[in-house]
Structure formats: C-alpha cells, structure tokens
C-alpha cells in the first residue's frame, strides 16, 4: 500500500488572514464590507477566498447581487476558523505579555569606571525615556562583565579593555584617558616634570587587579619598556586606588573621569608621562548575535548621543 507524501501543515491549512476574512464575510454578509473592515481591496479579498477554496477543494462562499453567503461547507470551515483565530489571539496576548516583562527590566554589567562615572547619567536619561523600567547594575572588572554576559546574567555590558572580549559583539561608545596621579607631597609632584615611560614601568604603582580594563591598557602600553613592576598595592576598585593615592602611599593610575574632583581640589596631582599613550576605548558589549532589544537597545542609543557621553565620537 503506497503512502501519500507528507505535506507541511502550513501548506494544508489556510493562512490566518484568509480565515479572518472568512469570519468577517460570515458576520457582515458581504465580501465588500469584509474587505473594507480588514483594510484590503475587494478584488484582493475575492482572490484570497478563491485561493482558500482551491486549497481546501470546496466552495466556501456563494456570491450574488444581494451579497455573499456561506455554503454549508463554508459554515463548517468558519466554525473551525473561529477556534484557530481565538488560539492565535491567545498566542499574541501571551507574546505581548512576554515582551512586556522583558521590556520592563534591564540587567546591566559594567566595569568600575563606567559604572561609577558614566552609567548614573545614562540611567537617569533612560528613566526619562522609559519610566518604570527596573534596572539592576552589576559592577566588576571587564573580565567579570564578559563572564556575566556569556552566562546570561546580564542583557548589556560595558567594558574598558583593549578589545571586545571573545564571544561578544560590541561598539565603542566613548574614549577615555588613563592618568598618573600622586599626592601633593610625592617627589613626582614636587619636580613638576614629566616622567618617562621607562620610569613608570620601573616604579611599583598602586594598581587595579588583573582582569580590569585599566590594568590591561597599562600592561600593553608599557610592554615595550620591560612591563609593569610588581604592584605596590593591588586593589579591586577605583575608589580604593584613589584613596590610597590621596593618602600618599604612592602613584596610582586611574581614569581621568575618576579623579577630576581630586585633581581640581589639589588632593591629587596629575603627572604627565612622556613617550606613551594611555588612551582607551570604552565599549558597550553583548553576546554575539542580534543586538540588544527593548530597554537595552534604548540605553545603547543614549550612550552614543554626543551630548550624553564623555568623549563621544
């Protein structure tokens, strides 16, 4: 006994728009009025009905000068069509609820400098555009941000390293500079001269931990000068590095964003470094594939506005 070839259900069941049209014809008693209600032309509606009749192999609608009425087969198909459309409406309502839940929250992971000095302003602007969005912020170094994104624990991340971490896509949203700072009593502050890259490399510094964007940039910049000396202190936050430098413990290397107030008040002194560039890119990142959606997409757009971000390009 031969078996009929399998045909996909989508080829055997009329499309949803055709079923909605049939239901409108049944309710209004006129193909023309049904077409008008659905926003299509009468010839298009007639074509859609004929196509459905050919697909099912039965006549569904009888047309006359007085209007259109369903055949017996058409009435039966209309009954089935009503159930399909109701199921589709329930599906749509569920999908909209899912989108609503997704679009009402945003999980952001950011490296320390961005979390402390840029994100607060961006998030205030986001709340003005999307009031009611619940935002959670996870701060850590750039390596930790990448891990959170890859583990599905964050929707959008911000990092300060040399490149986009593996497994992520990203875009530069700002540029930043690292600067060397010391307390006013430090010898480098008293001489007033620039230190060389070699001197900086040979000096034990107050540094962020390995895995931080600050440390990555500094390691790369001084690699050709013998690399960094063993740290004088290795600390896990920008605030801690800044406090140690203010106390006079030694020279620290921090984002220009982080020390503007202290330099302005002369609690810290900026030391110029000759022969080496300590600029870096600040990036928004997300798992490889489609870009951020919902509030993540809106936050990303805010970060790239020229008036909303330090150093934007």
Which key terms come to mind for this protein?
single chain, about 325 residues, alpha/beta, D-Maltodextrin-Binding Protein, domain 2, 2 domains, seven-stranded mixed sheet, two-stranded antiparallel sheet, 13 strands, disordered C terminus, WH-like_DNA-bd_sf, transcription, transcription regulation
Summarize the structure.
The protein is built from 14 helices and 13 strands.
Verbal overview:
- The termini are far apart.
- With 313 residues, the chain is α/β, with parallel strands linked by helices.
- Strands 3, 4, 5, 6, 10, 11 and 13 form a 7-stranded mixed beta sheet that branches.
- A hairpin with a 2-residue loop joins strand 1 (61-64) and strand 2 (67-70).
- The protein has 14 helices and 13 strands.
- Residues 306-313 have low confidence and may be disordered.
- The protein folds into 2 domains: 9-101, Winged helix-like DNA-binding domain superfamily/Winged helix DNA-binding domain (Arc Repressor Mutant, subunit A, Orthogonal Bundle), CATH 1.10.10; 106-303, D-Maltodextrin-Binding Protein, domain 2 (3-Layer(aba) Sandwich).
């Amino acid at each position: 006994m031969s078996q009929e070839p399998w045909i996909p259900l989508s080829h055997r069941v009329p499309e949803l728009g055709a079923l909605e049209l049939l239901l409108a014809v049944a309710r209004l008693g006129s193909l023309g009025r049904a077409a008008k209600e659905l926003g299509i032309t009468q010839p298009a509606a007639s074509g859609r009905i004929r196509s459905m009749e050919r697909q099912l192999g039965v006549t569904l609608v009888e047309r006359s000068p007085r209007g259109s009425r369903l055949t017996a087969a058409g009435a039966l198909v209309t009954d089935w069509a009503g159930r399909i459309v109701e199921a589709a409406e329930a599906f749509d309502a569920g999908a909209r609820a899912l989108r609503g839940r997704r679009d009402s929250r945003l999980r952001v992971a950011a490296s320390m400098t961005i979390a402390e000095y840029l994100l607060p302003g961006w998030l205030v602007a986001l709340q003005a555009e999307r009031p009611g969005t619940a935002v959670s912020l996870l701060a850590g170094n750039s390596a930790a941000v990448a891990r959170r994104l890859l583990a599905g624990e964050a929707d959008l991340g911000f990092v300060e390293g040399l490149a986009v971490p593996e497994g992520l896509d990203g875009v530069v949203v700002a540029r930043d500079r690292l600067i060397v700072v010391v307390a006013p009593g430090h010898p480098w502050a008293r001489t007033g001269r620039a230190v060389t890259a070699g001197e900086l490399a040979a000096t034990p510094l107050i540094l962020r931990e390995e895995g931080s964007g600050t440390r990555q940039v500094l390691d790369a910049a001084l690699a050709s000068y013998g690399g960094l000396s063993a740290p004088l202190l290795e600390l896990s936050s920008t605030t801690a590095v800044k406090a140690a430098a203010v106390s006079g413990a030694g020279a620290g290397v921090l984002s220009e964003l982080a020390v503007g107030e202290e330099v302005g008040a002369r609690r810290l002194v900026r030391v110029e470094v000759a022969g080496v560039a300590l600029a870096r890119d600040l990036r928004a990142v997300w798992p490889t594939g489609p870009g951020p959606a919902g509030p993540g997409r809106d936050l990303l757009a805010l970060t790239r506005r020229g008036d909303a971000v330090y150093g934007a390009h």
